[in-house]
Write a structure and sequence with these properties.
Low-confidence stretches: 3-19, 233-242
Number of domains: 1
CATH architecture: Clam
Strand order of the largest sheet: 1-8-9-10-11-12-15-16-2-3-4-5-6-7
Order of helices and strands: EHHHEEEEEEHHEEEEEEEEEH
CATH topology: outer membrane lipoprotein receptor (LolB), chain A
Number of strands: 16
Structural class: alpha+beta
Distance between the termini: 51 Å
């Protein structure tokens, strides 16, 4: 089933849609309700995540802390363990990184991949749904909610029929495999998945998750302090758990 959300009629469609179990608007609403509700996803500006990652090619687990702008293509990631100290970020104007003391900038191909990744992230999909964005198309196919924006396919979300929780996500319509999630847990005034995994062996556990307002102070440009992010993260997290 398919519904196109247009500018003037978007709110009417979302409110007046039938309540059939496969109605795209109803499925989208259940999905938003399961992770904190449409209001918080429509109004907060940034996603801030902190997770413990396990990767088959990494000797040790590592932490990943990220900040994502939900309205503009801006993203910062910090990866840390006792073997690894990496930070990277990008805006619409370009990207940069620091890996074990080596600095680099993103080339055109890397930037294209990062911008596509920002547009298709689950957080961005939730933002567009919550704001009833112009040019947003929602379709259902069984438990899958497919999201398209301005003619670009952003991906699918497998939605639990009973709870509305995200079960798995992916960005390829032809291949319905992607990241499979654990249960949804409360993190303050928002809810998010407790864990996730992919077929290749990568998995994560969510340690903290929050949606921040537009006044959050986030550095997307390089800074002299980037070289010491990992000792800071280890110290702050150790103090927080004492």
């Amino acid at each position: 089933m398919k519904i196109l959300l247009l500018s003037l009629g978007a709110a009417v469609l979302l409110c007046a849609a039938p309540t059939r179990a496969d109605d795209p608007n109803a499925v989208a609403q259940r999905l938003l309700d399961s992770v904190g509700g449409a209001d918080i996803w429509a109004t907060r500006r940034y996603v801030h995540t902190f997770a413990l990652n396990h990767h088959p090619q990494a000797r040790l687990p590592y932490t990943q802390e990220g900040w994502i702008d939900l309205d503009q293509p801006r993203h910062r990631i910090e990866l840390c363990n006792y073997d690894m100290q990496r930070v990277r970020a990008f805006t619409a104007d370009g990207g940069w990184g620091l890996s074990e003391g080596r600095s680099y900038t993103f080339d055109d191909e890397r930037m294209a991949d990062e911008l596509r990744g920002w547009r298709t992230r689950i957080y961005r999909r939730l933002r567009l749904i919550a704001q009833q964005a112009d040019g947003l198309t929602l379709e259902t196919d069984g438990p899958y909610l497919h999201i398209t924006h301005d003619g670009e396919y952003l991906g699918w979300v497998e939605v639990a029929p009973e709870t509305g929780a995200p079960v798995s996500i992916g960005s390829d319509r032809a291949e319905m495999t992607g990241t499979r999630f654990g249960v949804v847990e409360a993190f303050g005034d928002v809810s998010w998945v407790s864990s996730g995994e992919q077929a290749g062996g990568w998995r994560f556990e969510t340690m903290s998750f929050e949606l921040l307002g537009a006044d959050a102070d986030i550095a997307f440009a390089p800074s002299p302090t980037d070289a010491s992010i990992c000792p800071r993260v280890r110290t702050e997290r150790a103090v927080a758990t004492e």
